[in-house]
UniProtKB/TrEMBL annotation, chain A:
One of its GO terms (cellular component) is plasma membrane. It is a multi-pass membrane protein. GO terms for biological process: transmembrane transport. CDD domains: TM_PBP2. Coiled coil: none annotated. The gene is amyD. Belongs to the binding-protein-dependent transport system permease family. It comes from Faecalimonas umbilicata. This is ABC transporter permease protein AmyD. Residues 67-279 form the ABC transmembrane type-1 domain. SUPFAM superfamilies: MalF N-terminal region-like (SSF160964), MetI-like (SSF161098). The chain crosses the membrane at residues 7-29, 71-92, 104-125, 152-175, 206-226, 260-280.
TrEMBL record, chain B:
GO terms for biological process: transmembrane transport. It is a multi-pass membrane protein. Pfam families: BPD_transp_1 (PF00528). It is found in: Cell membrane. The gene is amyC. Keywords: Cell membrane, Membrane, Transmembrane, Transmembrane helix, Transport. Belongs to the binding-protein-dependent transport system permease family. GO terms for cellular component: plasma membrane. Residues 68-259 form the ABC transmembrane type-1 domain. InterPro entries: BP-dep_ABC_trans_perm (IPR050901), MetI-like (IPR000515), MetI-like_sf (IPR035906). This is ABC transporter permease protein AmyC. PROSITE patterns: ABC_TM1. It comes from the Bacteria. The chain crosses the membrane at residues 12-34, 72-91, 103-124, 136-156, 192-215, 235-259.
From TrEMBL, chain C:
Keywords: Cell membrane, Lipoprotein, Membrane, Palmitate, Signal, Transport. The lineage of its organism: Bacteria, Bacillati, Bacillota, Clostridia, Lachnospirales. The keyword Lyase does not apply. Belongs to the bacterial solute-binding protein 1 family. Residues 23-40 have a biased composition (Basic and acidic residues). GO terms for biological process: transmembrane transport. InterPro entries: Bact_solute-bd_prot1 (IPR050490), SBP (IPR006059), SBP_1_CS (IPR006061). Pfam families: SBP_bac_1. It comes from the Bacteria. It comes from Faecalimonas umbilicata. Residues 1-18 form the signal peptide. Residues 21-40 are annotated as: Disordered. This is Binding protein MsmE.
């Protein structure tokens, strides 16, 4: 009887599974098929070329650049968002007037579409009339064209992405901190533990589930980064700031190599899957039960 | 006493600094939105006059009002579906920890990792075949499908923390699984639902890529499309664009302020347990 | 740490206390507000018309003309301008075979869209296609694919006042050496010789696309054939790349050439801070919007050496094609005939400020009139097609855009990399044909 009931509630995920199969898996399989062709993205004809696109992918210096950038965007953003998010959460967990305003302001940028955020940030970093250069010139220095330098542009993209979404990590950590029972601290205080010791031995281990959620969500988001890059640099100068996602669009539409672009897309998917699975495994081993 | 005040001063300085950093984007938008296009003063400087022409332009010329209406409709319906279908799917996954369900959970996480771009053109072709282009249901289905994994992820974590006792009691009283779900489980999901609404709602509201391709007719244009249209290649009117961005951001911020009380609580229960 | 915070605070205050800006005087421009007329749609048919003309004035005119069509015929038209993603959207729609009833073909009527376009040879306007554009919109079998409302005549646009101040006479700029000399003069008066907007990567595409024919294909049939049959020796491309690299080394580009956008360039020319821009004449109308008091002009592209002719490029600008598979062929035909009608076509071409592509239509090109008069049908000037549309396989426009940025990005081996990328992409696309 019980087994039957349990099996019956499995029916509840059928609507979701149907949606996935029809609107994600079916197009995705179609995309895999395209990745074995030389399709230009609009013609009614295409030719199967076997694994040519995948061979080319491993020889293409632009793909290598985009791969490295994607990892930088994903991993650096994740680190910054977590460290800063945790710092904000610890700070806002102390008592002072107006902290809810600070919390709201930190979360507010999350509400802005990344594409629009990119355009807004362009107003800040632009050479000609950019807000940052106004300050630099006020201090008596020559204006700088930061986005023209690919390393600086990559750093800016990471920074903007991190600061925009640090609110998500902060909220997760704030939630995590509310879950740490106060008596642990009280006991530690009695034992004369310093604040660093308390953080290291109580807060940090108990925050593991929060760290895990925050890391996974940020990592997947960072590895899929697209709109922000398009709005700030469009992947330029040259191919130097492309992520795999933006390179897919560039190759699909502008370069008219849809087959090759699909191969890059599949590669990006595999990369995201491998990286996030490694990270998930890492956390599975370390999570402490409260 | 003296010492305590001092430490609080330090906190306020830091708080002001943090607020300053994070308010920059919105500050820029507001500054530009209410400034004349011929005002070439620094972007740090707010206009010293009252100027509404950009807002007027954004509302009238780019069809922002229609876009707002469309986006509210699309986001609203999407959220309802994301909440209902997501909660339903999460229920068996967190209650029946069978091998099949573990696999299903992995599959759903996998969907989250597919870059939307790699399926965009096949998805468009499919939508075109079934008549979903330029329709509300077409974009809603796409948005719902791509936000479901996040919703399921949050709900599944939350449901795991609800004691099974109530359901068992309901089963003894003769409730079927459907009744149990809607009468017993759904009412308990309030806090996490606030998180789901904020996180997925913001995505739906801001979505650009799906809308760009699936909604080409101006009649079904969304807010982000309208704003991006302002910013696109040859558009000279940066102030109008900022005004449009301002109008587009306002509703989500209001929604957030309204829901934030529940939001944090929902995160406590879903993301960290 | 505390000091840092305090300094930051003071800095913030300082910026904030710099005060608020004063209301600027706005130039009084007559805004033609298109009042939304009630559509008198009598039939159920609504045609879908996708177009990609930027600029508010032109867009408003297109909408007004479509409304007039509805009033006269009772057929509805939904005119859609998808913005900078126009060609991506068109590709998606071609892929799914879901084309609009009519759309603008922006230079690709033959090379990209022919598969989906209805030949227009039976229309009345087919006999009136201007001879300088006919070849480019007709395929090998003589099928005409698009209705050229107007046509581009493109060279280098310049600010007359800046060149005057620098002591440059454009009529003397016959070769690139002359042009370089002019750049030097412009730089010496502290202004930007060549304005680029690399964030909008098509401005780099323009740059490469405009100078390439002067170095490679003009009056050189061997190279023309080699490019078309796939045997082109890409080491010859070094000349093109080196020219750009040398302008960069001399500091002739604006400092933010890689990251500025097109509008920054428009503003720089409007403010008389920059001299030249590689852009079609349509850019001039944008500049006049910013500053109606400045004086703009356009000039032919200089030649690689003495004795060769300077050149101007002609191509489609606002041209309309009709879907082969439209569900409303009769209505679409009526729409095409309407757009080709003398009064309508003249109105649209005039708004674009370009000569009409139909020889029976008079377009008022306004302040650019003297330039069109001077350069149209001038035996001294070569009339050439756009380089990429004619000589490169479809899809290589992207490579022109990207390699332009690569050369200016300052990375090692940038020039070699630019040449290699062009070569690889060309070979791969040729192999696909």
């Amino acid at each position: 009887m019980k087994v039957q009931k349990k099996a019956a509630i499995n029916l509840f995920y059928i609507p979701a599974i149907v949606l996935f199969l029809v609107f994600v898996i079916y197009p995705f399989l179609h995309g895999i098929r395209i990745s074995f062709t030389n399709w230009n993205g609009y013609s009614q004809t295409m030719k199967f070329v076997g694994i040519d696109n995948y061979v080319r992918l491993f020889q293409d210096a632009n793909v290598r650049t985009a791969l490295v950038n994607t990892l930088v965007y994903g991993i650096a953003s994740t680190i910054i968002q977590n460290v800063l998010g945790l710092a904000y959460a610890l700070f806002l967990n102390t008592k002072f007037k107006g902290r809810s305003i600070v919390r709201t302001v930190i979360y507010m940028p999350v509400m802005i579409a990344p594409l629009i955020m990119g355009y807004i940030m362009y107003f800040l970093f632009q050479y000609d009339g950019g807000a940052l250069n106004d300050i630099i010139m006020l201090l008596g220095h020559e204006p700088v064209d930061l986005l023209a330098n690919s390393s600086a542009a990559i750093a800016i993209i990471v920074m903007v992405n991190s600061l925009q979404f640090v609110g998500v990590s902060m909220v997760i950590y704030l939630a995590g901190l509310q879950n740490v029972p106060n008596m642990y601290y009280e006991a530690a205080m009695l034992d004369g533990a310093s604040s660093w010791q308390r953080f290291k031995h109580i807060t940090f281990p108990l925050l593991m589930p929060a760290i895990s959620s925050s890391t996974i969500l940020n990592l997947i988001g960072g590895l899929k980064l697209f709109d922000l890059v398009m709005a700030l640099t469009s992947g330029g100068p040259g191919f130097t700031t492309h992520s795999l996602s933006t390179l897919v669009t560039n190759q699909y539409f502008s370069a008219q190599s849809a087959g090759y672009a699909s191969a890059i897309g599949i590669f990006a998917f595999l990369l995201i899957m491998v990286v996030s699975n490694v990270v998930m495994k890492f956390f599975d081993k370390r999570e402490v039960d409260v | 006493m003296q010492n305590k005040k001092k430490s609080n001063l330090w906190k306020y300085c830091l708080a002001i600094f943090i607020v300053f950093i994070h308010i920059i984007p919105i500050y820029m938008v507001i500054g530009l939105a209410f400034k004349s296009p011929y005002d070439h003063s620094s972007r740090w400087v707010l206009p010293g006059y009252f100027y509404l022409k950009n807002i007027y332009t954004a509302l009238n010329k780019s069809g922002m009002l229609l876009a707002l209406k469309n986006t509210i409709l699309i986001t609203g319906l999407s959220i309802i579906l994301i909440v209902v279908i997501g909660a339903m799917a999460a229920y068996p996954i967190s209650r029946n920890k069978s091998k099949l369900n573990k696999w299903i959970k992995g599959f759903i996480m996998g969907v989250m990792m597919i870059p939307p771009l790699s399926i965009l053109v096949p998805l468009y072709s499919f939508m075109a075949d079934v008549g979903g282009i330029n329709t509300y249901w077409g974009i809603i289905v796409a948005l719902v499908t791509f936000q479901l994994p996040t919703s399921i992820f949050l709900y599944a974590n939350f449901i795991s923390t609800i004691p099974v006792a109530l359901e068992e009691a309901a089963a003894i009283d003769g409730c079927g699984p459907i009744q149990t779900f809607f009468r017993i489980i759904m009412p308990q999901l309030k806090p996490v639902t606030a998180s789901v609404i904020i996180i997925t709602g913001v995505f739906c509201w801001n979505n650009y890529q799906f809308a760009l391709y699936l909604l080409q007719s101006p009649k079904v244009k969304t807010v982000t499309l309208a704003i991006a249209g302002f910013f696109s290649a040859d558009a000279a009117n940066m102030n109008g664009a900022a005004a449009a961005a301002f109008i587009g951001i306002l509703p989500v911020i209001v929604l957030f302020l309204f829901l934030q009380k529940y939001f944090i609580q929902g995160m406590v229960d879903s993301a960290v347990k | 740490m505390k000091k840092l915070v305090v300094t930051m605070l003071i800095a913030t205050m300082a910026i904030a206390s710099a005060g608020c800006s004063k209301a600027p005087e706005e130039p009084k421009t007559e805004t033609t507000e298109t009042t939304a007329k009630k559509e008198k749609q009598e039939t159920d048919v609504t045609l879908e018309f996708l177009y990609n003309l930027n600029g508010e004035a032109i867009s408003n005119e297109v909408q007004a003309v479509c409304e007039q069509f509805t009033e006269e015929t009772g057929i509805g038209v939904e005119a859609i301008m998808p913005g900078s993603n126009f060609s991506d959207i068109m590709k998606t729609r071609m892929a799914s075979n879901q084309l609009p009833d009519v759309w603008t073909t922006h230079g690709w009527a033959v090379a990209r869209y022919a598969e989906y376009l209805e030949p227009l040879n039976d229309f009345g306007f087919a006999d009136h296609i201007s001879s300088s554009i006919e070849e480019q919109i007709t395929d090998k079998d003589g099928n005409l694919y698009t209705l050229p409302i107007d046509m581009d005549l493109t060279g280098i646009i310049y600010n007359v006042n800046v060149l005057e101040e620098a002591g440059v006479n454009v009529d003397d700029l016959k070769t690139w050496d002359d042009f370089n000399e002019a750049c030097k003069k412009v730089k010496s008066i502290g202004k930007t010789p060549i304005q680029m907007g690399g964030k909008d990567s098509y401005t780099f595409g323009n740059l490469m696309d405009f100078i390439a024919p002067t170095f490679i294909t003009n009056e050189d049939e061997a190279n023309q054939e080699a490019l078309l049959d796939g045997s082109f020796d890409w080491s010859k491309w070094n000349v093109v790349v080196d020219q750009v690299a040398s302008w960069n080394a001399e500091g002739y580009f604006n400092k933010d050439a890689v990251t500025a956008d097109f509008m920054t360039g428009v503003k720089a020319l409007a403010a008389e801070e920059a001299a030249f821009m590689f852009h079609s004449a349509s850019g001039i109308s944008e500049i006049y919007v910013q500053n109606p008091d400045t004086e703009m002009g356009f000039m032919p592209l200089p030649a690689r050496e003495d004795g060769l002719k300077t050149s101007l490029m002609t191509g489609e600008h606002f041209a309309i094609g009709m879907s082969k598979t439209t569900e409303h062929p009769e209505e679409a035909k009526k729409f095409m005939e309407f757009m080709a009608r003398e009064d309508i076509c003249a109105k649209l071409a005039t708004k674009c400020g370009m000569p009409s592509g139909l020889d029976n239509v008079e377009s008022d090109t306004g302040r650019l009139e003297p330039f069109y008069e001077k350069y149209t049908n001038n035996a001294e000037i070569l009339n050439i097609p756009y380089f990429d549309r004619k000589y490169l396989p479809s899809g290589m426009w992207n490579d022109l855009c990207v390699t332009g940025g690569t050369i200016l990005s300052g990375q090692d081996n940038a020039t070699e990399e630019a040449v290699t990328q062009m070569k690889n992409s060309y070979e791969e696309k040729k192999a696909q044909e």
